[in-house]
Amino acid sequence: KAKGLGKNQYCVYNDTMGMKEIRKMELEKDLQRALKDKQFYLMYQPKWNVKTNKLAGFEALLRWKHPRLGVISPAEFIPIAEETGHIVPITRWTLEQACIQCKEWQEKGDIHPISVNISIRLFQTDKLADFVQSVLEKVELDPNLLELEITESMVLFDVEDIVRQLQSIRALGVKISMDDFGTGYSSIGLLDRLPIDSLKLDRLFTNDLETPSKRAIINAILLMAENLHLDVIAEGVESREHIESLTQLGCNVMQGYYYGKPMESEDVDDWVKNNKERALDFVANTVSEL
Ligand code: C2E
Ligand code: MG
Ligand code: MG
Ligand code: MG
């Protein structure tokens, strides 16, 4: 009996693998039409500066609304898009869309910097800096309002070339942030060579602040960042405890569900309005306590 069960489990396991493969193949095929059929949209998640008690900007996060399968996470389709090369037109669309949104906010009188995730694949294609410049010109967006988030995996690529490209992008006035810092391929050895402005501490660290060894690592990262004149922003901030610990350690900018989940463009205005009031209340309370 046990043997039979084992055999069944083996079959189920195999079937599951098969389903995954099938889904991947389907997504691969459907990605071809997704842009043309306007199936992508962006969500915006706030970043909060606890020191100034002000909104520090928004991160644009891509979503794919698949006609049959519903909303698909970028964690699932970005790697596929990277394999197939679709990542290039998708990133162009995303970058332009995010810049248009940022410009819209500005025209309404709200200045919120915007961050866009850029796959390292984009550094391997044509001139990324030229493309970023052309989008900024087209949208007439102040380059200082744009930040690109890149990941550590770039250490696997031609570092000299990436450094040059990053320099060209920064020369435009655009900021560069190292996303998911501390996970994956560690780029600590490259940090002093990379022309970047900030580090985003991966949410694994935020979720493990009670562990003394993890605190020690964050402490060291913050110290290193300070000496390298890099700003640090914490991801995955979900609770008051997270904020207290991170502030104690000297991290001042936070992003996570505690402040706001990624939201649709039309919900941003309300969120901003509500949180301006909240920020004013906070300041008023602090002042009255003094
Ligand atoms: P990321 O850039 O590190 O983005 C943060 C992810 O963490 C987002 O997931 C966000 O919804 C989630 N998150 C934010 N706060 C919290 C929190 O407090 N708790 C928890 N548990 N999660 C939180 P999302 O939107 O599913 O994106 C996943 C990843 O997909 C992103 O990670 C980024 O690497 C990639 N991605 C998203 N949009 C794009 C894009 O336009 N282009 C590229 N190349 N990659 C993208
Ligand atoms: Mg990011
Ligand atoms: Mg991140
Ligand atoms: Mg992350």
From TrEMBL:
Keyword Acetylation recorded: no
Keywords: Membrane, Transmembrane, Transmembrane helix
Domain EAL: 24-276
The keyword Transmembrane helix is assigned to this record: yes
Organism listed in the record: Lysinibacillus telephonicus
Region of the whole protein represented: 388 to 677 of 677
Protein name, entry field: Bifunctional diguanylate cyclase/phosphodiesterase
A Gene Ontology term for the protein's cellular component: membrane
